[in-house]
Every structure is written in C-alpha cells, then in structure tokens.
Amino acid sequence: MSLIPATILTGFLGSGKTTLLKRVLTEAHGQKIAVIENEFGDENIDNEILVQDSREQIIQLNNGCVCCTIREDLRSTLTVLAAKRRKGELQFDRVVIETTGLADPGPVAQTFFMDDEVAENFLLDSILTLVDAKHGDQQLDTRQEARMQVGFADQIFISKADLVDDASVDALAHRIKHMNPRAPQKRVNFGDVPLKDVFDLKGFNLNAKLEIDPDFLKADDHGHGHHHHDHDHDHEHGEHCDHPHHHAHDDDVKSFVFRSDKPFNPAKLEDFLAAIVQVYGPKMLRYKGVLNMKGSDRKVIFQGVHQLMGSDLGPAWAKGEKKTSKMVFIGLDLPKDVFQQGLEQCLA
Prior knowledge:
It is a single chain. With 348 residues, the chain is of the alpha/beta class. It contains 11 helices and 13 strands. It has helices spanning 17-26, 46-49, 74-86, 105-114, 116-121, 136-142, 144-152, 166-179, 214-218, 266-280, 336-345, and strands spanning 4-11, 33-37, 58-60, 66-69, 94-98, 122-132, 155-159, 185-188, 253-260, 284-291, 298-305, 308-316, 325-332. Helix 6 (136-142) packs across helix 7 (144-152) and helix 10 runs antiparallel to helix 11. It is globular. The N and C termini lie far apart (43 Å). This is Cobalamin biosynthesis protein CobW. It holds the Pfam family CobW_C.
C-alpha cells in the first residue's frame, strides 16, 4: 500500500487554523481526511460538525472524514489509525494534524522519521503555518513559539489580511520572509485556500526541487566581493533593506544561505554536519540543501529538522549546468560565522 500523506497544521492561537481546517474538511474534493487534534479547545471542530462521544477517540464525520483527539501521544494515535485503515474499519486518504497554538512542530515532524511503524505507513508532506495579520507582529515579538512555527513552515498563510491595511500586511510578509525564505506565502481570508496550496506540497520530499526564493539569493549579491556566500540578510545590512521601519525586529529566528561553486569533500562535510547537529540541533529548525560533492556526478540533496538529518542522491547535474552547492539554514540564533567557516573548510 502506498504511504498515507500527512500534513501538520500549526499557527498561533486565533490565527484561524480551525477555520481553515473546516473549509478543507467540508469542501467537495472527494478526499477523505483524518484529522488529529492535539487538543480540543473552545473553538474545536466538533461544535459544528460532530458530536463527540467521550469514550471514543476516533469520530467519523458525516462526509467520511474522521476526527481524533490525542489522549496519548501522536505515535500511538497514528498507529491506531493505520491499523484501522488496513483492516478496512476506517477509510481515509490523508491525515492532517492540528497542533496547539503553543506547540513546537519539531517533535511532531520528527515522529514521522524516528518511529519505524509510523514511517512504514505515513509520509510527512509538509508543515503549514498560519500567521494572523492583525496580531502577528505582536505574537512574533513576544512569543518564541510563534517565531519557531514560522521557521518550520513549508507554506505560510497570512490570515485575516482584510482586517489590516496593505502596508502592515506587506511589512509582516517582509519580516516573515527574513525568518524563512524557503516558504511561499499566501494571504487568506476566512480559511479560503485552494487545496493545491494545502496538500501534496512535498516539503519533506528530498528529491523535490529545493525551493529557495531566487530573489533572496540575489538580494545581497551586488558587488560586495563575497565570492561564494551570501549575507544572512538579517538587518545588519540596513542599506539594502526596503523597509527601514523594520529594524525594530531583530528576530531570533533567522535564515542564512551558504553557496559555493567548489565541490565539497564528502567525508569532511559529513563530520562537520554531524558535529553542528550535535551542538546546535535543538536550535536548528529546518535546513536543506543541494550539494555538489567531489567525485559524484549527481546532486546530493540533504535536509533536516532539529537533530534529524537525512540525505539522498538527487538527479545528475545537467550538461552545462553550473555545479553550485546551495544550503539554507533556518534556526534560533545560529552562529552564522561558525557554520560559514566550517562549511568553507569542508570544500575540496
């Protein structure tokens, strides 16, 4: 049987996760979706769609979707769902996990890689993060969890954009882009999102093409003599920042990109990455790269979440294609210079 795709839906309290979820569940897309909620809060999904039986962990919705509360950990809930599906007791095509507003999505994502039984049944597709346009700035200022959720995202939805003026939404979008350049952003009202922006995004698919916004890579390339790495684009470089009023936000979640046209020495790189993951893993939210390895005519694709890192052989470098290694790191106060120097020392 093919693996069941799973999506993690995260976002701060009141950002509209439940609204988005209801839209997705009630839309006529013909897919049966199992929803796992980390908590049933006040605005839980069952008020309108289902009546919950307190003894039953898994509730069938009228449209064939199922809903479960997590009374134990995620692992056991996923295992139960997979078993019921195998026996034909439940039918569903995919799983959406809605995390609490205060959750760090990292351990949820790691469950899909750490646990063999889960990995044999499910494939983590992506992490979606909702940011509330009205309160987003304040939440990002005051709550590290909110900043981490942005750092983890494969796709970001800015909700309630109709409640604030365009300039404020633009400023918020710009701020989020600095924190996470990999994730495309969409503005949504009332949870109205096309399904193609929600499912099958392949955020964790190692062979999917590496999405780093090309403008992000170009932005600091104008003749600073930096031959093979970028600035990390945080606000030390005020002179190229279009939004001067942004300098108030020195967020601890930052991203930086490393690039080189020289190939990596595979053994050195492996040792260095293993060492930094050991030391900085808890602060490394998401990292990803396409690497040019000495002695290989194929791209090597690598990515990770916290301490978990994986790599895979990608397609061959095309004829005439410039063999450039590109890596993006998103994390909490990562020492950019340590990474930069260490990676440069791994070049062949």
